[in-house]
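Look over this entry.
=====
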Amino acid sequence: MGDYSWGYRLADVDLEELSRLYRIAPLGHKPPEALATVFGNSRFTCFVRAGDVLVGAGRALADGGDCAYIADVAVHPDHQGQGLGSDIIRELLQLARGHKKIILYASPGTEPFYRKLGFLHMNTAMAVWADPDPAVRNGLLRPEA
């Protein structure tokens, strides 16, 4: 998996650095306290460093048998396009192996990337979001007519 070091413990990660990674990836503003909660409640986490710099991260919620959900995969812009995002997804898939289904939601236009990693399009996925308007504008949610 390249010239990177991989870690799996949230306790070994500076949450300010993790928050910065999401901001510059760019995956939005995720405050350190929120990241502590969501990563702390995730069964599987992985963190990737190039030297002493955090350059990748991801997590998966999982129930231990039926369902796992991959979320918050981020790669530093200087390391994008080199396969690191794919490696993080593959690692989370490996960590969650044995679950009957592993899901994620893809931003519009990224479906071919996930297909190459073995994901298939779901026809019946639905969601309730706390603030659906931005997701509708970005094409993640489709309002009913």
